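Hi C.,

You asked whether I'd gotten around to modeling the 143-residue construct. I have! Everything is below, sequence then structure, no commentary in between.
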Amino acid sequence: MTPRTTAIVVAFVILLLGVIGLIYPERVLGVLGFAIQNPSHTAAAMGEVRATYGGLFLVMGLAALLGALDPVAHRGLLRLIGLLWLGACAGRLLGVYLDGNPGLPGWGAAGFELLVGGALLVAAGRAPVVLHEAPLVAAAPPP
């Protein structure tokens, strides 16, 4: 895949995750294996899921889509988003080291984060380098 295509696919995946986080916070909690322990905290928990897994992911997906439109001009943005995903993966792997085996869902999430982050870094790195062209008008020789 071209860098642009890779970045567009990843951007739409991130956007989809953000929309799901905004619209279906209960399902996101279920997929993550979280539960609300105190019913009086339901609104706060749903707000946290909508903010973190909804709002942040939606904006990150939009930024990745912007970067995908011109991967050369937005190479740094694509790298940043890729590094954010790799940072999430690194945090998850630190949890494996400190807390133990997270089971299949935890390993799947780590693999997904590694794949998304790696894909964006590869797309940013493979975007062609644009060299500045020589000016059309040559400078006059010194007198």
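If it helps when you're writing up: DSSP finds five helices and no strands in the chain.

Thanks,
B.
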